[in-house]
Amino acid sequence: MNMHLLGVALDMDGLLFDTERIYFQVGQVLLQRRGHTFTLELQQKMMGRIGLSAIGQMIEHHRLDDDPVSLLAESDVVYGELLLGELRPMPGLEEWIGRLKNSGLPFGLATSSRRKFVDQILPTTQWANDLAFVLTGDDVTHGKPNPEMYLKAADRLGVSPSQMLVLEDSGNGAKAAVSAGAVTVAVPNEHTQLHAFEDVHLVADSLADRRLWELLPSKSDVS
Fold this sequence. Notes:
This protein has 223 residues and is of the alpha/beta class. It has two domains: 2-17 and 89-222, Rossmann fold (3-Layer(aba) Sandwich), CATH 3.40.50; 20-86, Orthogonal Bundle (DNA polymerase, domain 1). The protein has ten helices and six strands; from the N terminus they run βαααααβαβαβαββαα. The protein has a six-stranded parallel β-sheet, covered by helices on one side. The longest helix has 19 residues, at 68-86. The chain is globular and about 55 Å long. The protein starts with 6 loop residues before the first strand and ends with a helix.
């Protein structure tokens, strides 16, 4: 398999950064203002979906009468206020990025997050300039679990989806990658460990899992 992998696509929320914790706080704020409670069950429904689709899950779940566009705007304000102060890398992130760079494979970001938030997060890293592409929720019509994001990622890499390794932390994201035909590895976090990860190649313990690292070729293999 190593010889067939020609590129890598990475999710961001819950995989590279512990933003799911921030999203949970945002959900709590929004729903407390409306006399409801944000639950893990609702968070699972929203994960991986792009802006209005995620907000639609919240509205449907609690039968809110809010306008989706207005509620999304309110959500953006709360998230933006929390983001940089609460942002934390996931365990093993820097080591994994180093291993990726040493592999010689091009790699990029395929996240459901809005572009404006990605543009705040990436400058805090040392590897933003190493990304071959950045796809956000603003770049697709259909969010995860639809495969559109990863079909576009393969196109940006110039490879077949079957030659692309995808890392995802959520069931919706993993389903999108599997449906696109990518070699999919699930890296669950505390919020997604009970998700179903059907047909993935591997369920890794973390970004530091050596089984994940062993999927990558060496630079000599790539050249």
